[in-house]
Design a protein that fits this description.
Order of helices and strands: EHEHEHEEEHHHEEEHHEEEEE
Number of helices: 8
Structural class: alpha/beta
Strand content: 15-25%
Number of strands: 14
Radius of gyration: 17 Å
Distance between the termini: 24 Å
Shape: globular
């Protein structure tokens, strides 16, 4: 199976000519599917942008959502709307709502939105305040004293869903591709060639997702996990263990790119970066 990976598209900020170029680049690659690791757009426009692609292509889209995708709504309402739309389209696959998908003999695809959950770094001393707290209803309806609890609760729910999917993998699984939005480890949270510090980590690392991945990889050493994520808009790779590798994708507002092509077989997963 040959796939293309793209991330942090923010299509609500993309001029039509740039969208068309991105679409043509994807169409020229002779793919079996498109992978998107979140921040597709904002609010209701997420569905519109996904359907815009579907109307022009027969390519299946496998995706998770990022924090920007929930802007102007709540997490539950956004997910419910996406699940409903995807069940009406054979091309749209919202991985947070799905069990692992077999993509080759012994190879599986799964995903979970994930969330920067305040468990890594120093939340109490951080000077960062994201727009998420004003633009997402789950946070806007509460005060700052409740935000850390919300982050950890959402992160815990994501980790639990991911744990269930990993435990659903059959014993023949030896290659697993995991899509998520937020880097699950500090070592995978890249910005201009460096990894994050304690100030930014609470809002850019999905610590509970990372713990779940580490636990699974320890239990199943014969199973190689490759994680694709975004969120930071800067590229990097982190080798967390012999069977756990994390690729973080780059992005530029207004100019969507194809981050990489991925060839998956029973014995190997080959990722070739395309983005500059």
């Amino acid at each position: 199976m040959r796939l293309a990976w793209t991330t942090d598209l923010h299509l609500n900020s993309v001029p039509t000519p740039a969208w068309e170029q991105w679409f043509q680049n994807i169409s020229s690659l002779q793919l079996d599917g498109l992978l998107i690791t979140g921040d597709i757009s904002e609010g209701d426009d997420v569905i519109r942008q996904l359907l815009r692609f579907v109307e022009r292509s027969n390519l299946p889209i496998y995706f998770v959502l990022g924090n920007h995708d929930f802007y102007g709504s709540t997490i539950q309402a956004t997910r419910q709307n996406l699940v409903h739309s995807c069940r009406e389209s054979s091309q749209l696959h919202y991985l947070t709502d799905l069990s692992p998908i077999r993509i080759a003999s012994g190879a599986y695809l799964l995903g979970e939105d994930g969330w920067a959950d305040g468990t890594v770094g120093n939340y109490e001393q951080s000077t960062i305040e994201l727009k998420d707290f004003q633009r997402i209803g789950d946070f806007a309806a509460t005060g700052p004293s409740y935000w850390k609890h919300q982050l950890q609760r959402i992160g815990s729910e994501s980790a639990q869903r991911l744990r269930i999917k990993l435990n659903q993998l059959p014993r023949d699984a030896n290659q697993v591709l995991v899509l998520t939005h937020v880097p699950p480890f500090r070592e995978a949270c890249w910005y201009e060639g460096q990894t994050t510090d304690d100030n930014w980590a609470p809002f850019f690392v999905a610590g509970q997702i990372g713990n779940t991945l580490t636990e699974f990889c320890h239990q199943r050493p014969e199973c190689k996990i490759t994680v694709l994520c975004g969120h930071t808009h800067h590229a990097g790779v982190a080798q967390m263990s012999d069977n756990l590798q994390v690729f973080t994708g780059a992005a530029t507002y207004g100019r969507p790119e194809i981050e990489a092509t991925i060839s998956v077989s029973a014995d190997a997963l080959e990722l070739i970066r395309l983005a500059p």
